[in-house]
Amino acid sequence: MKRASPRSALGSATVTRIALTLLLSCPTASAFAQAPDPQDPREAKPERPTVATHAYAVSAGIVELEAGFQWQRPAPSSAQFTVPALFKIGLGKRIQLDISPGFARVGADGVVGSGPVDTVVGVKWQVAERLPLLADVAIQPTLKLPTGSVEKGTGTGTTDASLVLISSRSIGAVALDINVGYTRRSGDGSATPTDATMWTISAGFPVKGSLAWAAEVFGYPGTSGPSGSGPVVAFLTGPTFKVQRSVVLDAGVIFDIKGFGGTAVYAGVTWNMGRLPMEGQ
Questions:
Q1: What angle do CA 26, 154, 198 make, to 5 degrees?
Q2: Is pLDDT at 28 greater than 70 in this prediction?
Q3: DSSP 8-state assignment for residue 259
Q4: The CATH number of the domain where 57 resides is what?
Q5: Residue-range definition of the domain harbouring residue 178
Q6: CB-side neighbour CA atoms (13 Å) of 121
Q7: Looking at the domain assignment, is residue 191 inside a domain?
Q8: Based on the structure, what is the number of domains in the chain?
Q9: Per the domain annotation, does 278 fall within a domain?
Q10: For residues 120 and 25, is the Cβ–Cβ distance under 8 A?
Q11: Over the stretch 80-112, which tens digit does the pLDDT of each residue have?
Q12: Measuring CA to CA, which residue among 251, 211, 231 is closest to residue 68?
C-alpha cells in the first residue's frame, strides 16, 4: 500500500491550521514585559507566551533570546509540537530587529512530518507614547519566509507580509496590550488563505514577589478562498516567574473557545543575553 505524503494526508484545512499554529508559536508578551522601558537594559522584556506583543523594544545593542515549546492535539488523529525561538536585537532607541526561526513536528492520520518552520524577520518600532486614547504605540512589520516544508507540514510555501499595530498601557498594577494585525500571503490561496487578520487583548499582573500571571483572549477572523476557514477564538492563561532580572520563565494552557482545536500547553524562557560585542571592546 502506498504511503500518503504528509501534504495529502493533512489536507488544505490542516495546513491552514498549521500556519496558525506557527504564528501562535512565535513568542510574544508576558506579565513582566508589559511595562515602559526599564532603567536597567539587562531587564528581560518577554514577548511570550501570549499572541500579543507589547510596544517596547530591548535597549540598543542588547540581544535577548526567547524559546519554548507548544503541544496540541487538535483532533484525535493529529498532534502538533512546535519549538519556537525569537532573537531580539536592539537597533536603537525604541526599535529592535526580530528574527524568529523554529522547529515543528506535525502528525495527522498516521503521517508525521518534522523539520524547520517558516522563518519570520521583522522590526518593532515604538512610534509614540502616552497618547490620549492609545497610550504607548508601536508598529511591527514582519516578513515570513518559506523556509519550512509544505510536504512535511512545517511550512505554508508562501511568503507573508504582515503589519501589527500595538497599544500598551498600565492600569494600576495591570499591564494591558491590544494588538490588531493584517497578513498578505503569496500564492493562489489553495493551501492557505491569501489574506488574514488577527486581534488580541492581553493582560499581565503581579501575584506575589517574582510570580506574575498572564491572561489573553485572541482571535483570527474567518478567511475566504479555496482554503478558507471559520473564525478562531481562544483563551490563554498561565504564570510567569522571574528567576533573576535577565531570566523569566513561563508556562500555561490555551483553551479553545471557537475553532482553535484541542487544548494546547506551553512553556518557555526569556533570557536577556547582554550587549553585542563591539569592536575594540
A1: 40
A2: no
A3: S
A4: 2.40.160.40
A5: 6-272
A6: 4
A7: yes
A8: 1
A9: no
A10: no
A11: 999 999 999 999 999 999 999 999 999 877 788
A12: 251
